Amino acid sequence: MVDELFEVFEELFERRNKKKKKEKEGKSGKGGNAAAPATPPIFCVDCGARNEGGARFCMECGALLPSPGEELRCLSCNAQLPLKAKFCPRCGAKAAV
Ligand SMILES: [Zn+2]
Ligand SMILES: [Zn+2]
Questions:
Q1: Domain residues of the chain, as ranges?
Q2: How many angstroms separate the CA atoms of 64 and 93, rounded?
Q3: What is the pLDDT of residues 48-72, one digit of tens each?
Q4: Among all ligands shown, which has an atom nearest to the Cα of 73?
Q5: CA 89–ligand 1 middle distance (angstroms)
Q6: Cα(69)–Cα(74) distance, rounded to whole angstroms?
Q7: What is the distance in A from the centroid of ligand 1 to the CA of 40?
């Protein structure tokens, strides 16, 4: 009797393991890239139009758009500038646009 019970338990345990393995395989196979967020929209510095992420130029006015992750920096003192800055707040140099 005890042996039979043990066998049943063993079988159940094996089934569980198999199920878990299958679930893991399914998740890593399909859902790998699904969680990746879409590129955020880029707002034009000149006219404020909302452009799709990855766009290089504004679809409204044709201005060059800042690429995501790219920072606007002062050419004179290398201070980080806000995207709309026309002059460096630190040294007063004209910001390149
Ligand atoms: Zn624009
Ligand atoms: Zn500066």
A1: 1-31
A2: 21
A3: 999 998 888 999 999 988 766 666 7
A4: 2
A5: 23
A6: 16
A7: 16
Contact 79, 58 (CB under 8 A): no
Upper half-sphere CA count for residue 30 (Cβ side, 13 Å): 5
Q: Which ligand is nearest to the CA of 43?
A: 1
The number of residues making up the chain comes to 97
Burial level of 86, CB count in 10 A (0-12/13-18/19+)?
exposed
* Angular region, 69: left φ>0, alpha ψ -120 to 50, beta rest: left
pTM above 0.85, yes or no: no
- 80's CB contacts (< 8 A; 6+ apart) are 71, 72, 73, 74
